Amino acid sequence: MGLVFCLWRLTLLSLAAILFSPKYCTSQKDDGRKYPFMQNAASAPSVSYYDYIIIGGGTAGCPLAATLSQSHTVLVLERGGSPYGNPNITNLNAFGVPLADTSPFSPAQRFISQDGVVNSRARVLGGGSCLNAGFYTRASPHYVREVGWDGKLVNESYKWVERVVVFQPPMRQWQSAVRDALLEVGVSPYNGFTYDHVYGTKIGGSIFDQNGHRHTAADLLEYANANTITLLLHAIVHRILFTTNKGGSRSRPVAHGVVFKDDHGREHRAYLNQGTSNEIIVSAGALGSPQLLMLSGIGAAHHLREHNINVVLDQPLVGQGMSDNPMNAIFVPSPQPVEVSLIQVVGITNFGSYIEAASGENFNGGSQRDFGMFSPKIGQFSKLPPKQRTPEAIAKAIERMESLDQEAFKGGFILEKIMGPISTGHLELQNTDPNENPIVTFNYFQDPRDLEMCIHGISTIERVINSKAFSPFKYNNMSASMLLNMTANSPVNLLPKHTNTGRSLAQFCRDTVMTIWHYHGGCQVGRVVDSDYKVLGIDALRVIDGSTFNYSPGTNPQATVMMLGRYMGVKILRERLVADETK
Ligand SMILES: Cc1cc2nc3c(=O)[nH]c(=O)nc-3n(C[C@H](O)[C@H](O)[C@H](O)COP(=O)(O)OP(=O)(O)OC[C@H]3O[C@@H](n4cnc5c(N)ncnc54)[C@H](O)[C@@H]3O)c2cc1C
Ligand SMILES: *[C@@H]1O[C@H](CO)[C@@H](O)[C@H](O)[C@H]1NC(C)=O
Ligand SMILES: *[C@@H]1O[C@H](CO)[C@@H](O)[C@H](O)[C@H]1NC(C)=O
Ligand SMILES: *[C@@H]1O[C@H](CO)[C@@H](O)[C@H](O)[C@H]1NC(C)=O
Ligand SMILES: *[C@@H]1O[C@H](CO)[C@@H](O)[C@H](O)[C@H]1NC(C)=O
């Protein structure tokens, strides 16, 4: 479609214009021109005013902005570019291309936690929904009750999201075999195709449509009021500005503006319009939100002073409660070809482990064969324990992968992630540059209950592999030791070796831990924000995104992150209506 568009443009342009702007088609694509209200921050005025300023046009920020724009002026500041017209983002087969690109222009920004696990965060309009594996599944009613959300509005908000961006995935032979195998080993009942979080085996939704085309949180901006919303791309927020409420002894800091820079490095300021209900909302994600609060002076005072940051509020809980659900996976070589698929089937066990699967050799947009979701090119590397995954070791694994025979890629990964998790870590600033990653520690498996869930999960996967239903997709005539040898010789995965070979499942869990990119926390409800997502101790400032979670919702979080954006948008508008009426 992009090409057709470009060719059509070319017929309208003189040859001179083509010669003088060779990147014309590319920049058209980059800007996407999807929405009339979307523009590069470089073209923004140096000072402007809005009712709401949303920092981060990600998975939560987009639905939130679309909702608030129904009756108020809204500015969205997103540090990345547009996902529209970028096949690296929109095609299922290109999953991994942005994650493998470590340049500063990539829609993915790589980070490595102190644990040693390579990870990735979004830098693009639509946020993580532009990079993820697409699996869409709601939180359980139990989770909704525990958090204290209004269940009716939650369901309405999920539906609002689902109408635009969620599809039923096609079920082909390999995913079907995993489904049948899960049922055979007792992960039952079968719940069919459903978004609901219920025990047993089910097929979930996907933000990839039947043609493998990705739909993202940015598509939820179709709901926005084009007359009241302003969306700036390549706008990186450096800090939030505060004044003080003149409330006598009860004076509190009030957020009233932000400082951001465009891609020419020029500084701009945006302020809230006068009016007591206007607010700044941080939706910069689990790394970005706590980082930005700290850069703005909200954090542990001693830590902020180390970086010469003026302390607005001494709040040691900012950056605490960081968690990443550990993921462990087994690669199963198949005698017959398997379809390319990301996550479609999930087994929801009653011991806190979720079994999912991804299959098929994945070209990752290039000519090289690749392990897709488990490729060392994107930093997934379970061959060595986390602390030994040096850049050199990963480079060597990529080299080995590229020299592998085609046969080696035939097969699929069966993974498990644990719920929660219970183990938590923390986040600190590395420096005061908002473009750089903060330092983050997740403490995978620090709590023994997390390890127990992993061990249970891996033994379930072993039973899945040995089931009758899965037998067409594994080499029956190969001995376990041969299979082990095969996987052990591929650059990524190991089959678990049991105690008879000196390695326990617990050790397997620790040594092969990877991320499923569901990291969350840092601005948790009850610690940094209240149950209305208002930052404790500060006026006119909220945080709404995955950084507020105490536990990851559902088997995978994106449904609930998008839902939360919509849900809070509606709640804020309702509260405001009441407040304005009582004035
Ligand atoms: C590779 C990958 C695979 C995944 N697979 C799945 C899956 O299959 N199913 C599922 O449910 N979940 C999946 N997830 C998780 C899910 O996508 C995330 O949990 C979710 O997107 C997080 O949303 P968020 O709004 O909290 O943050 P984000 O979506 O990351 O949004 C934050 C936004 O803020 C912007 N930002 C940050 N700092 C600043 C700043 N200073 N100024 C301006 N803008 C800023 C960022 O560029 C970003 O766009 C996956 C994630 C990844 C990365
Ligand atoms: C897609 O990714 C490749 C590899 O990182 C990069 O060279 C190319 O410019 C990207 N395309 C777009 C449209 O961003
Ligand atoms: C919300 O929907 C789920 C099914 O998706 C249902 O189980 C639950 O009862 C609903 N909650 C309310 C409050 O309607
Ligand atoms: C296993 O069976 C396949 C096909 O039936 C065959 O090609 C292969 O050589 C066999 N492998 C071994 C180790 O026997
Ligand atoms: C294991 O793999 C190595 C390297 O590919 C090979 O040399 C060896 O013969 C294999 N051993 C078995 C038992 O298959």
Report on the architecture of this protein:
With 583 residues, the protein is an alpha/beta fold. 28% of the residues lie in helices and 20% in strands. It is built from 16 helices and 26 strands. It has a seven-stranded mixed sheet, with helices on one face. Strand 16 (298-299), helix 11 (301-306) and strand 17 form a beta-alpha-beta unit. Helix 4 packs parallel to helix 16 (558-581) and helix 8 (151-165) crosses helix 16. Mean pLDDT is 90; it is low at 1-31.
The gist of it:
The chain has about 575 residues and is α/β, with parallel strands linked by helices. It has two domains: about 250 residues, FAD/NAD(P)-binding domain (3-Layer(bba) Sandwich), CATH 3.50.50.60; about 230 residues, Cholesterol Oxidase, domain 2. The protein is about 30% helix and about 20% strand.
SSE diagram, text form:
Layout: H1 2-12, H2 15-20, H3 24-31, E1 38-40, E2 47-50, E3 52-55, H4 61-68, E4 74-77, H5 87-90, H6 97-100, E5 108-112, E6 118-122, E7 135-136, H7 141-147, H8 151-165, H9 173-184, E8 190-193, E9 200-203, E10 205-206, E11 229-233, E12 236-244, E13 253-261, E14 267-272, E15 279-282, H10 285-295, E16 298-299, H11 301-306, E17 313-314, E18 320-322, E19 326-333, E20 345-348, E21 353-359, H12 391-402, E22 411-418, E23 425-428, E24 439-441, H13 448-465, H14 480-489, H15 505-511, E25 514-515, E26 541-543, H16 558-581
Helix pairs in contact: 4-16, 8-16, 9-13, 13-15
